Amino acid sequence: MKKRRLLLIGCVMTALLFAGCKTNEVDTDDGTASTSTTQTGTSSSSSSQNLVSDSTSGSSSSSSSSSSSSSSSSTEDYASANEALWAAIQASRKAAMEAGAAEANPVAWAAAEADYEAQKALMESGASSQDMSAALRDLNYRYQGLTALANAQKKKAFIDENDWAGYNRSAYDDGAKKVSELTDPLKTFETGKSFYDTAAAAEKDFDTVINTAYRTISKEEREKAFEAKKNADSVKAAVSRKADYEQAVKTFKSGDSHYVTGNLQGSIDDYISARTQFETLYAEISEARAQALAAIEAARKRVSESEDVALAADKEAPLGNAQVEGIEAEDAKLLDDDDFAEAESAQAAAEDAIGEDVE
């Protein structure tokens, strides 16, 4: 393992000799290093030969057949496991690319890519029939670690843009320290697993800061929305604008539901929307009331002014008992008496004309 670590460090530092600089070497029991692509096969072959030389011819045939079957089974198991690990690496590598791992740490990305090419060559050469699990798992962890690092950097940037570090300063500082270590070219991680663990922890630190900020902001927005609701209630919005009021209440309750289910961003959006709706109701109803009161006050003012004019006129020229021009006296004779003389003359003329009495 020491030799493997030295090779990895050299691969990272040179950055120009990535391809082939990481091997699949693993430690043997006696401390010497042999490649993982040949170790198992050699051990199995040697064991079979010893069994053949020490047994009888009948036993030899049986032992040879058993050893061959065991070796074949072992080889098949390694190939299947290696293929599964290689498929996992493909997925992890793609995720790292999409996350922007190459920009997150160019040196670590180049080292991982060099290792990828080396393992790919071994897989294509037929060495995948041997146990490659240690090397493949290490590579998979490196890609996963690079993805976590890229995500941690994005979350840190988001926190910085919104000035949210103060919501959980200790978690923010811990995450920032880990990111600094993960992007330091001089900082080496002995295994892909250690790189991944550090990167995942950094991402978790920033998640803690973001969640703390969201929860705090959500509670603040809920309080504002509730105050806006109380203002709307004060002007009887539930009566005068029933449909709009009920929609605002529905949005408010949706914010509560999102908060309980962990959708903190959704809860904030709903509370802000509900607050806006309640504030609009309060403003519009208050304005309508103000206009109505102004109209009533104007009418009262006109009546009051009319009364004032009448009082002033009465003081300046009171009517008293004097006759007012244009107004007849109570006992005035408006029409002359009619003696009906003209009617009687008309009747006599008519009787003469027709020769009969007219009744």
Explain the overall architecture:
With about 350 residues, this protein is mostly helical. The chain is about 75% helix and about 0% strand. It contains twelve helices and two strands. Strands 1-2 form a two-stranded antiparallel ribbon. Strand 1 and strand 2 (about 35) form a beta hairpin. It is rod-shaped and about 150 Å long. The model is unreliable at about 15-75 (pLDDT under 50).
Q: How is the topology of this model organized?
A:
Elements: H1 2-14, E1 25-27, E2 33-35, H2 36-54, H3 57-99, H4 101-104, H5 106-125, H6 133-162, H7 169-182, H8 192-234, H9 237-240, H10 242-261, H11 264-316, H12 341-354
Antiparallel strand pairs: 1-2
Helix pairs in contact: 1-5, 2-3, 3-6, 5-6, 6-7, 6-8, 7-8, 8-10, 8-11, 10-11
Order of helices and strands: HEEHHHHHHHHHHH
Global outline: rod-shaped
Average of pLDDT? 77
| Secondary structure tally, helices | 12
Share of β-strand residues = under 5%
Termini separation: 152 Å
Structural class: mainly alpha
- Tell me about the biggest sheet? 2 strands, antiparallel
Low-confidence stretches: 14-75
**Rg from C-alpha positions?**
50 Å
Number of strands: 2
**Can you give the helix content as a percent range?**
over 70%
Query: What topology, given as strand order, has the largest sheet?
Result: 1-2
